Structure formats: C-alpha cells, structure tokens
Design the sequence.
C-alpha cells in the first residue's frame, strides 16, 4: 500500500488499522526499541486502534533511560573534580544517580554545561585551555558517529583538555538478551534512526536465529501502522524476515561513512544497561589509539557505591515486563517535574510518554 506523502493521512491510518484488525488472528507481542517510537505510539494513540490480538511493549530504546546508574555516578564524581567541566545533552543532567545528579552538582557549584553535540563540547574545550572538558557520550549509532568525529577532530588539533566518558551502546545485544531472558517478544519494531546508520542487516540474526520478524519503521502514524501490518502479515504466514518500511531513509547496508568513523574511534566492549545488567559486546569504548581522550582512563575518580532509587521499577519497564502505571510512584511521587527514575526524565522515556499521553487502552 502506497502511503500519502505526509505519512499522517487519516484515511491511510484508518485503512491500515482495518487491515491489521482484519488479518490479525494470532496473538502477537511487538516490542519497540526506540524512544522516538515510544513517544509516537502514545502521542498518536496507536495502541487504541489495534485489536486485542496485538500487544505493544516498550523496550530499552531511550538513550538516557538505558544509561546505567554507574555511569551517572561516574559523571557526578567527575563533576566534583576541580577544573572539570561536564558537557552533556540536556536530559541527562536530571537523571538521578545513587545519591546525587548532575543537576544537584551544578546547584552545588560544579560546572555542568548543556551542549547539542560533541563538536560543541570540543569547541568549548579549545576556547578554555585551562579547563578539562568531559563530554558524556550516550546513545546508540545515531549519536556515536558525532562523538567519533569530535574525537578525530580533537586528535587533529592535538587537544589535551577534551575527554569523552563513553556510554555509547549498540542495540542488537540488548534485543537478543531480552529474548534469551524469556521476555515474551514475538516481533521487533526496529528503530528508524539507528538503522539509517547501521542498515537493516544488523537484525538478520534476530530474524534468522530467533525467528522473530523485524520491521524497520518510520515515525509518523501511518509509518508505524504500516510496519505493524507488515509484522502481522509475517506472523500469520509463519515468516520471520527483516523488512524495511522506512525505505525513504534506511538501506540494508546503512551509512558506510558513519560506520567507518565509528570503527575508527571505538571498539566493542561489555557495558551496563539499566535493567538489563552487563551485556557482552553491547557498548563502545574509545580505541587504544584514542585512549588519551578517554575520561575514564585520564581522570581517575572514586565512584560511590551504587544505590538504586527505592520503589522505581525502571529496569522492569525497560525490559518490557512492566508498564509505567504498574509503578506505585507513577504520577504520585514521580512526575516529569520531580522524576524519581530515568524513564520519567527523558523526553523519550516510557514513563514520560505514559504520563503525557496515557496508555491508550493497551
Ligand atoms: S514512574 Fe518513575 S519511579 Fe516509577 S518506574 Fe517510572 S521513572 Fe521509575
């Protein structure tokens, strides 16, 4: 079915919802692993358009939410160091660590600067040679090329006061870990922005080995409904393939230039994910060649012992085994103005999405 160009056309959405209702017979649980999809699903009320047979569950797709509490504690410890400036994307400063947050440290006098990119942090470092500027690298392949380019530029400029604390992650290990752990996932709605960089081929093992349909989706309502319909067609015919719905942006091979800069600067590493624990080969750390920019190596600090927020079930929400409204703190002690956990802080967090738009009846 060809979609009208704005990808929000009501007739298209209605037609797709009708096809899903008509063709879906087998109960199916579809996980999205992209914060943009989580917000779009709730904002457009898509769960309410689907039949009882189709369940949507949110997974670990929000970059801020999956950044582990140890990473926040590490950033807090760095912020307390004299002469260090933390440069970070805005959402991260409000994420609670074990006993503090970057927002609290800033209120106590630490230098915490919100930036839009790693290059902005590098420019700030170049203009302030007396300071050590630590950029907090979070997110998936959508953001890691930007961090990689800043590191390459820092090396060209022989910068000696620019550092990266990397918590960059790659998605497939988390997707397979959830299946291995026994979370009921029958199919994946695969992330659009990540796949622009990686290509859709990274999901082939999930479709092949795990027999789970994977459809890379765009972000508009008719994109998402068409993707769900593509999944339903696969489920009903017993298929498990990788398909690209978001073909106006995603190719099977992805963006080779962006992949090259990631490979130049980073190497694969084990990494902690909030809720999922330490996953083998799920993170990106700076390669030996660029280790002089690695804040973890170059600025040693004592990191406090980890203490999770009492009552917060963010970990279960990120694994898709609980919904935000199953948390006792949801809408009471925990709101976007007073977030207890990371999933309420981020504009792409599941708890934040449910707070803003409700759960749309699913
Ligand atoms: S509502 Fe708040 S406390 Fe509960 S899981 Fe979400 S972020 Fe954590």
Sequence:
């Amino acid at each position: 079915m060809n979609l009208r160009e704005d990808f929000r056309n009501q007739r298209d959405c209605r037609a797709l919802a009708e096809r899903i209702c008509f063709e879906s017979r087998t109960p199916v649980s579809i996980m999205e692993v992209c914060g943009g999809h989580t917000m779009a699903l709730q904002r457009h009320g898509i769960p309410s358009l689907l039949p009882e047979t189709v369940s949507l569950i949110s997974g670990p797709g929000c970059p801020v939410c999956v950044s582990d509490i140890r990473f926040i504690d590490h950033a807090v410890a760095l912020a307390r160091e004299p002469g260090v400036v933390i440069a970070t994307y805005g959402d991260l400063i409000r994420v609670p660590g074990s006993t503090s947050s970057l927002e609290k440290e800033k209120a106590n006098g630490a230098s915490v600067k919100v930036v839009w990119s790693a290059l902005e942090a590098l420019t700030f470092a170049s203009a302030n040679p007396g300071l050590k500027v630590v950029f907090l690298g979070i997110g998936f392949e959508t953001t890691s090329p930007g961090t990689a380019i800043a590191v390459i530029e820092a090396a060209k400029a022989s910068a000696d006061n620019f550092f990266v604390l990397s918590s960059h992650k790659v998605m497939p290990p988390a997707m397979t870990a959830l299946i291995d752990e026994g979370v009921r996932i029958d199919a994946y709605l695969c992330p659009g922005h990540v796949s622009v960089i990686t290509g859709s081929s990274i999901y082939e093992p999930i479709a092949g080995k795990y027999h789970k349909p994977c459809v890379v989706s765009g972000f508009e309502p008719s994109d998402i409904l068409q993707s769900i319909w593509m999944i339903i067609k696969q489920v009903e015919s017993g298929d498990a393939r990788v398909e690209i719905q978001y073909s106006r942006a995603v190719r099977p091979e992805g963006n080779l230039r962006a992949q090259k800069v990631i490979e130049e600067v980073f190497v694969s590493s084990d990494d902690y994910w909030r809720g999922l624990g330490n996953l083998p080969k799920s993170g990106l750390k700076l390669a030996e060649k660029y280790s002089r920019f690695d804040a973890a190596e170059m600025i040693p600090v004592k990191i406090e012992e980890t203490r999770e927020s009492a009552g917060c079930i963010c970990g279960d929400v990120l694994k898709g085994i609980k919904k935000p409204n199953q948390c006792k703190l949801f809408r009471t002690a925990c709101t976007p103005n007073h977030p207890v956990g990371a999933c309420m802080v981020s504009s792409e967090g599941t708890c934040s999405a449910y707070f803003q738009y409700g759960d749309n009846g699913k």
User: Anything to note?
Assistant: The chain is about 40% helix and 15% strand. The pocket of iron/sulfur cluster is lined by residues 312-314, 317, 324, 327, 329-330, 334, 340-341, 343-344, 351 (CB under 6 Å). The two ends are 26 Å apart (CA to CA).
